Structures are given as C-alpha cells and as structure tokens.
Amino acid sequence: MIRSDSDVVLSVKNLTASVQGVDVLRGVNLEVKAGEIHAVMGRNGSGKSTFSKILAGHPDYEVTGGEIRYQGQDLLELEPEERSRSGVFLAFQYPIEVPGVSNSEFLRLAYNARQTHRGEPELDPFDFEDFVQEKLGVVEMNPNFLERSVNSGFSGGEKKRNEILQMAVLEPTLAILDETDSGLDIDALRIVSNGVNQLTTPDNATILITHYQRLLDYITPDFVHVMEAGQIVKTGGKELALELEERGYDWIDEPEAVATAS
Amino acid sequence: MTASVKTLVNQPYKYGFVSQIESDTIPKGLSEDVVRLISAKKNEPKFMLDFRLRAYRQWVKLQEPTWPNVHYPAIDYQDIIYYSAPKTQGKLNSLDDVDPTLLETFEKLGIPLSEQKRLSNVAVDAVFDSVSIATTFKEDLAKEGVIFCSISEAVKEHPELIEKYLGSVVPIGDNFFAALNSAVFSDGSFVYIPKGVKCPMDLSTYFRINNGDSGQFERTLIVAEERSSVTYLEGCTAPMFDTNQLHAAVVELVALDDAEIKYSTVQNWYAGDENGVGGIYNFVTKRGLCAGNNSKISWTQVETGSAITWKYPSCVLAGDNSVGEFYSVALTNNLQQADTGTKMIHVGNNTSSTIISKGISAGKSNNSYRGLVKVAPNAKGARNYTQCDSMLIGDRCEAHTFPYIDVQNSSAKVEHEASTSKISEDQLFYFLQRGISAEDAVSMIVNGFCKEVFNELPMEFAAEADRLLSLKLEGTVG
After folding, report:
1. Interface of A with B (CB under 8 A)
2. Is the ipTM of this complex over 0.90?
3. Which residues are B261's β-sheet partners?
4. What is the pairing mode between strands B383-392 and B413-422?
5. A150 has which bridge partners?
6. Residue A121 — φ and ψ, nearest 5°?
7. pLDDT of A17-62, one tens digit each?
8. Which residue of A has its CA nearest to B425?
9. B389 to chain A: which residues are within 8 Å by CB?
10. C-alpha span between B394 and A38 (Å, rounded)
11. pTM for this entry
12. Is A85 close to B440, i.e. CB distance below 8 A?
C-alpha cells in the first residue's frame, strides 16, 4: 500500500519526555506516511506504551524536547480531544470501564464530536444506530454490546474488540494500537486483526505497539522498530520481528549501549 | 495537566435574583407572643393556635441535633424573622389580583401561573416566602373531589381534616426542627385525594424564598384515601444572599388502604458561593405513613442546592403488605455539606422497602448518606433492599455512609449493597481520546451513575434534573 508520493502523516523528531521527573523518552525519531503500518516492539519499560500515550496527549507525561508534527501541524499544540477529533486514535492497552454510560451513547457522542470538528452534520440516535450496525461486522460484535455500559464487565477480548469498533466508527487517520494483542486468545486475536486489516486504507496509517511477533502474523507491518530505553534503536522490515522472536532483545542491546554511552 | 480534575468553579446560580415586593414582616425573634401573633395574622381557629403553642413549648426544651455530619456556626434563633408575607389588598379572588411582580417572579423561575401560560398537565401551588400566592387548576381538581390548596386555606375550609392529620405522622415534638416548624409554620400545601380517585394531574408546589432575613417554615400535608393515588412534585429556589437562611419544613404523607403517593423533589436552593459564603440551611423533616394495607409511598429526591442539607424522607410501613421506596441523588460541590438518607420502619406484616441512594461529592464538599432500616418485633416477612453508591469527583471531597440496620424479627430479609467510585483521570482521558470534552464526560458519567434514580422521576423533572446536574458540575474539571 506504500506509494512513494504518500503524504507524511506523522513526523517525530528528537522527542524527549519525562514523567514525574524521570526521563522516559530520550530522543525518538519516527516518520509515518499514509498507507503504512509500523510496528514498535520492545521490552517492558522500553518506552513504547509511553510513546503512544504521549502521541495521544496523556496529561501524566511532560514533553521536554523535540517535536511531533501530524499532517503538517504541531501536534503538541493540540489538546487530547482536539487530537482525537483531527484523526489521532489510540486503542488502549487497558480499555477503561465506564459504568452507567451506554456503549452506543458513548460512540455517538464521540462520532458527533468528530463530525462537528469537520463541519459535518451530527447523527441523531436513530441514524447513528443504522450507521453503527454496519460497523459491528468489522469485529463480529453482537448488537447487544451497544446497550451495555462501556467496557463494564467485558472480557479482555471483548474490550479489545470494542476498541476496534470505536476505531471503525471514528475512522482515524493515525491509529495507534497499544498492545491490542495482549491478553487475547487466538480467536479474539484473529477477529481483532481482521478488524484492523479491514480498516487500513492507502489514506491512513497505523502504529502497532506490541511485545510479540504473533500479532504480526495477522497484520503485516511495513516497518518494524525496536525501542530500548526511550529510543528507537533499530529499524527494519517485517523480518526484524521474526529475528526478535527468535533471538530475543538482548542481541540488540550490546552495540547500542556503547553508542548511547559515547 | 490538561485533563486533571481541578478545583470547581460554579456557573452563576440562575435563580439568585431578588424580587422587590412590599411585605408584611414581623420583628425578628421567637417567643410565645410571636407564635400567637402568627396565628392571629392568619386568623386561625383555636385548635391551630393550641397546636402551635404546644409545639413551641416542646421546642424550647429540645436541643438542636449535633449528630449529623455537618458543621456550621451556631444559629441565633432570635435573629430570624418568623413571618414575612407579600402585602396584599384584602382577599384575592383571582390571579388578576395577585401582584404582577410576584407573577413575574414565578414566570422567571419557569413556573408561569397565568391561565394562558400555565403548565398544562401540572397543577401548581406557588409559595413565596411564607405565603401561598396562587394555586392553579383548583376548580378542575375540585370536580374530582380533589382538594389542593394552601395549608392556611385548608385550616379554615377543612379544619376537620387538618385537625385529624396534621402532626399525625410527624408529631410536634418529633425533633428540634419539626417542633420549630409546628410552632411557626406559615404556609404550605394541602392535598386530599378522596376514596377511589386517581388524581387527574400531577400536583406541584414551588417554594421560593425571597426575604434575606426570614426563615421559611412551610408545611405540606397529603392525605390519600383508600384506593386513591397522586403524584406530587416539589421545586425550590432562593436568591443569593451572603447570609444563610433557615428552611425548616415538615412534610407529612398519609396513605390509607391501597393508596399510593409518589413524592418527588428537585431541590435547588441557593448553595452559597465557592467559598461557602451564604446559602440555605435546609433542615427538613419528611415522613410518610403507609397507614393502610397494600399502601405505597415513594420518595424521589434530587438534592443539588443548599449550603447544608439535613433531611431523611422516611416511610412508616404500618399497613400489611405496604411498600416504601426512597430514590435519591444528592450532589454536593464547593463547600456544601449534606447529611441525607431515609428511614424505613417496618411495622405491618409482609412489608417491603427499597432504598437507592446516589451521592456525588465534588470540590471540597462533604456528602453523607445516613439510613435506618428497622423491623419491629411483630413485623413478619419484612424485606428491604438498600443500594448506596458514592461517587467522588476530585481529591478534596468526602463521602460517608452511615447505614443503621435494626432487625427485631427473624423472618426479615435485609440486603445492603454499597460502592464508592471516583471519576478517575484515566476515565476522563479515555473520553478525551475519543474526542468527547471533559465536561460532557463528567456529565455522562454522573448521569449514568444516577440513572436508576432519574428513571423514577416524572418526565418534566427528569429533564430538569439532568440539566441541573450538568449545570452544577460545569467547571468541576479543568
């Protein structure tokens, strides 16, 4: 799906960030073009989930340097809700439960916020129901999910499918999937991956944050990045993921440790 | 910290205006003479004066309760005006005689009283300071035999009913504030639904405090005869003053065999400003007596206003198979304090009660649920279900729960569930990440939290409650 003339969706340069005074990102560089799928891999604590939260504007993290440009604009200037409305979507590693708020109401409000931002008409509950019915198929979801409270009492797999349903409704330009594969059994992994594959187009871009190669059996990345101690230390094609699977992360550490020390 | 839960900045209180009305006001202070003066001003029969005097004599012996989980400077009961009424020229024969400023006031509050504009499906008794100024649809209701009038009028027109029922549910010496009210109450509403009548429309009282120095002591009495039913709504607002006003009301409900009373309140008294200056002290005794078999009394309250709320709408389930319900949302913000809940007293056989309480605390407020479920020794087969949920917004507010369960009959089934939750930064961030503003997020979460109670409200009130909560919560997150 990559075209040489694709637009740059996301450009991250020398991004540094801290949480409560501790440096968590130490100079991240990444460029993502329309139509591309990037996988960011790494050990626990390497900074990959942090990176995804910073892209979405999570208030716990402070950006201390560098820049993030999204579709040519300074992403750091935008509030989290503005980032969302302009097409940045984060599928949460741990989707949040919201008792008492129905899934359909939540989806409709989110959808309408996006519509308003684009200067397009909002949908009333009836029209929205027709619209969302179509989207349910993307993640093979039963319509009664819409009437349940957001993620409340959902199984791990249901929560992740619900994230992808939200993605289907919001049709993001940049989707960041934070360990969407974690905690999924093989059927759920297939459903979620199928969903993501249906939603990728030449006009949008996807960043997959993951520990494991197995997600990449279902969703084929164009690039694989390895993150270590808050930096992207290695970039390759999809074969890099296989190599990591086979050899672990240790072999990457050695030369880079020298490089950062110098 | 874009989405962090921050200090609360309230929207201006919309009902805070003062109406310029010439009023007939007696000097501050309370004594037996003042009680006599109030009774004389109202031209009351002797039994009423005696009732007041007995109450006054009890009151001087009673102590203000100190057990509620609320704190306020001592109230000087001699510094309060106990009677203040809009000046009127003789007897009012129709709405045309009512001071236009008063009509305007209620219009501004969204309660139009004039023939053309009034709410089509709700009869309203409008109480301004101490006096009922107008009751709509009286004639239509009279055709069904329903009596709906101010309590002052009822004292004169239906003394036998007042003498029989007034003080029958809340005795004059029941508690400090009830005794005070019984001595000095100035007006309020009276409802009588005759046997077998289903009241053809909802009845409503709208209470408005206008005078900054006067207390408001109104009295409501609803009697539902056998096989009758009625839905009753109560709304309240007050101007913004930087002093506190005392509101000590008493509401009594009596349901006879197979009768049903549904009583709903949306309480929006002025709550004081963000520094806790001003606001109403709302010390209210509300109690319903399910006197008859198969009778039912249901309280629904949405408490959003008042600097301090002290209020426990209760049910005494005396009749066999009688049912008591209490659905409550209590929202406190800024420096508001609320100690509210219910009492369900099971006396008859096979009685059942349901308590659903939702407390929301924001700002630096303090919100307590206090409830009693009591099963008398001879009450066989009593059942109670209590669900008591608290929600915290921010990290400087408090939520407390004080449930008392006193079961003296072994056949009783009593269930109690409780939960405490907090609107977390993670929840807010989740909404924001989906493009939903923090304010919409809080309002959705809170409305979801309150859904079970809102479902119990009559339609006109449900929309109002929803809107009110959103308004009160504006600015609770930054």
Report:
1. 56-60, 79-81, 83-85, 89-90, 92, 95-96, 98-102, 105-106, 109-110, 113-114, 117, 149, 166, 170
2. yes
3. B230, B297
4. parallel
5. A98
6. -70, 145
7. 999 999 999 999 999 999 999 999 998 889 999 999 999 999 999 9
8. A59
9. none
10. 38
11. 0.81
12. no
